[in-house]
Structures are given as C-alpha cells and as structure tokens.
Design goal:
Order of helices and strands: HHHEHHEEH
CATH class of the domain at 31-131: Mainly Alpha
Shape: elongated
Helix content: 10-25%
Structural class: mainly alpha
Radius of gyration: 35 Å
Distance between the termini: 114 Å
Strand order of the largest sheet: 1-3-2
Number of helices: 6
CATH architecture of the domain at 31-131: Orthogonal Bundle
Largest sheet: 3 strands, antiparallel
Length: about 200
C-alpha cells in the first residue's frame, strides 16, 4: 500500500499480546545492578502480573510460581527478600499459613487501592523506593583489598602449656611396677591357649 499500512490494522512491530513495561530508570539503577539473577527473574515475574489496576495484588508465592518454573522455595524466598530490601517491591498483605499468600506491589508504579491491604500498607509505600537505596553502589563495598587471613581480633588464644595441676592416667594400670622387679612379676597379658 502507498501509505505503508497493512490493511486496517497497524503493525506494532512486535508479537501480539500484552507486554511488560519496565522503565529504564529501573534497569539503569544502581540497585538493579546489584541484584542477583534470581531476584531479577522474580522482578520480571511480578512485572508480568501487572495489568492497569492490580499493583498491590501481585503474587510471589511458591504455589503460584511453580507453574512458571520456580522449584526452590529457598531461592524464591531469597529473591523476594532481596527485592524488598532493595526497594523494588512493597508487601501490601502479609501472608500466613495455611492458605493466605502475601501480596506485593512494584514501586515504579502507583499503588492501587484495595480494601484487603494490611494496615499501614498505603502509608509505608514509596514510589521509586529502589532509587533511594543508600547501600546500592556499583563498586564492591570493601574495594579490591584482599581480606586478612589472620583471625579477627577478639578471638581467644589457647595457652600452649597445660593447665595447672596434675594429669591423671586414664587407664587403671599404674605406669610403674609396684614393688619388686618387673621381670619377676606375672604378665598382665593373658597367655594364649593352643587349640588341639
């Protein structure tokens, strides 16, 4: 066609269906650069759930994410903790056993209001909290200095000499013969009886 259109529908240049809108400010932040790969993967899983008005009701439970390939509860918990600590997600509802999952919100979007949120969820939410992280630096905290291989100060040194007092033998036999000549004493080792 002369105007470059294909029929009545415009080609968007991508596959059909929804998409994850992740701002560059998130991807370029110092906090994001410090995230582990599981935390980054979980952030994408949470962003995948967001649709217009459900920020605050995003799930990161093992039951929900198992069908998306998450197998380890330990890896999932560490990734959640990392995202919470670095300000990428905010917990709006604290889950509990036996069957109530926690709800989360991503912090680069406005928090949507739901009546089921925990008390204080609205007041403690900070949009863009991932940018506020003071500990989010791109260089290692200790620089490139090697760690010391000596014990840290405060470890107690063990004395190289035995404690004061006598040391008693553990066995019941005395270490020296009791009176008499040691060759005239009967042997303590039982004699072998030859079998015929």
């Amino acid at each position: 066609m002369p105007n470059g259109r294909r029929g009545s529908r415009r080609d968007s240049g991508r596959d059909a269906g929804g998409f994850v809108a992740l701002p560059w400010s998130v991807l370029d932040s110092a906090s994001y650069a410090r995230l582990s790969h599981p935390a980054r993967a979980l952030l994408l899983e949470l962003a995948r759930q967001y649709v217009l008005d459900n920020n605050g009701r995003l799930l990161a439970s093992r039951a929900y994410l198992a069908k998306r390939g998450w197998r380890s509860a330990d890896v999932l918990q560490r990734a959640k903790t990392e995202l919470l600590n670095n300000g990428f997600i905010h917990e709006t509802v604290k889950g509990h056993r036996p069957n109530k999952a926690s709800w989360y919100a991503v912090t680069w979007m406005t928090l949507d209001r739901y009546p089921g949120f925990d008390t204080g969820a609205f007041e403690t939410f900070r949009r863009g909290a991932y940018r506020d992280q003071k500990n989010a630096v791109l260089c290692p905290s200790g620089g490139t200095v090697r760690s010391s291989i000596v014990p840290s100060p405060g470890t107690e040194r063990v004395s190289p000499v035995p404690s004061p007092g006598t040391i008693r033998a553990v066995s019941g036999c005395p270490s020296v013969p009791s009176g008499g000549h040691h060759l005239e004493m009967p042997s303590a080792v039982p004699t072998r009886i030859a079998a015929h």
